[in-house]
Amino acid sequence: MLAPMTKALRKVRQIRQYANEPVSADALVQLLEVARWTGSSRNSQPWHFLVITDREKLKRISDLRPNINWVAAAPLAIAIVLDGESEMSESYDEGRVTERLLIAAHMLGLGGGTAHYGTAEHQAAAKKILGIPVDRAARSVVTIGRPTSAKDPRPNPRKGGRKPLSEIVSYEGWGMSKR
Amino acid sequence: MAIEQLRVRQIRRFSRDPVSDDAIAELLQIARWTGSWANSQPWHFVVIRDRDALRRISELRPPMSWLADVPLAIAIVLDRAGTSQAYDEGRVTERLLTGAHMLGLGAGVAWFGGDAEDAEAKRILDIPAGRTARSLVAIGHPTSGKDPILDMLPVGRKPLSELVSYDRWGNAKR
């Protein structure tokens, strides 16, 4: 069976509650290397990673809106900053590098979660907090730490689970079920 | 699972061997369990092994000619064309690339190319016009051949010193 090989990958979930202990310098370097080597549109590498451990900055980010208040207690966040040249293509690449960071955190025995700043006003405020130039795009951070719980601590947690494959897969053409 | 397994590169040259049904089932589960914005799961996956469909997609534009020979492609169909769907498309693509690598396979992304090519790909795959479809992930057994796309691009990556700041934009390591 193939499942055991990839089971760990399937089990990667967002973690938003962490132990009150720092992420090691060694783990951080590994995470940054994983981010650095992620593929991007035409190898444009349209990103910059801002490593945040400063408690006051994390607190200010967490105060942007109630649904990201859990960021205040994260030991580490990596803000993804994009060149701001192509919103659609950079969003796709941001998703790619975010996913790698979540998987890598899991492989390192840590957990990762994503927090989006919110509206354009929230994004502008986050850029101010972090000193990011206004012409760059910055929408989210990936928080990382040792998990204490996989529960979703947000005021309005999302329903878990996934649609069945029969609803989300077609074969050879739209709407065609397995032969 | 070792972190070395995350050194995943795109593969665009495959042997003719088919991808096993087991591997396809596993890849679809990996895709299914990928996280998405507010757990919206804004996607649908079209599994393509039909040679004629793959050939027709490969003819959408010259840089896609390598698709004619791939054993399998999974087209990602999105509910809408927004940036949050693009972000989720990137997430599920990355899981598929990683999952294929873990299964001893290789995978590469192909973009249909633009509005006209997206529309034509949707026609080929009978995807409703109201959905968004712009890319697919091709999967197969890698051969050691060169990459037809990457060979045209600069290789390697910027150094961390150019890519990383600490606590504040432009701050080098504390």
Query: In percent, how much strand structure appears in the residues of chain B?
Result: 15-25%
Net shape of chain B = globular
Helical element count of chain A? 6
Largest beta-sheet characterization of chain B: 4 strands, antiparallel
Give the total of beta strands of chain B. 5
Order of helices and strands of chain B: HEHEHEHEHE
What fraction, in percent, of the residue positions of chain B are helical? 25-40%
Give the helices and strands of chain A as they follow along the chain: HEHEHEHEHEEHE
Fraction of helical residues of chain A: 25-40%
Oligomer: heterodimer
The Rg value of chain A, from CA coordinates, equals 18 Å
Structural class of the helices, strands and pairings of chain B? alpha+beta
Number of strands of chain A: 7
Major sheet of chain A: size, sense and barrel closure? 4 strands, antiparallel
Distance between the termini of chain A: 22 Å
Mean pLDDT across residues of chain A: 94
Labels describing this entry:
heterodimer; A: alpha+beta; two-stranded antiparallel ribbon; 7 strands; 20% strand; B: 174 residues; alpha+beta; 31% helix; globular
Q: How is this structure best described in words?
A:
The complex is a heterodimer of chains A (179) and B (174). In chain A, helix 2 runs antiparallel to helix 4. The two termini of chain A are 22 Å apart. Chain A contains 6 helices and 7 strands; from the N terminus they run αβαβαβαβαββαβ. The model of chain A has no long low-confidence stretch (mean pLDDT 94). Helix content of chain A is 36%, strand content 20%. With 174 residues, chain B is α+β, with helices and mostly antiparallel strands. Chain B has a 4-stranded antiparallel sheet with strand order 1-2-4-3, sandwiched between helices. The longest helix of chain B has 20 residues, at 83-102. Chain B has 5 helices and 5 strands; from the N terminus they run H-E-H-E-H-E-H-E-H-E. In chain B, helix 1 runs antiparallel to helix 3 (83-102). Classes of the chains: A alpha+beta (179), B alpha+beta (174). Strand 2 (47-52) of chain A pairs parallel with strand 5 of chain B, so a sheet runs across the interface.
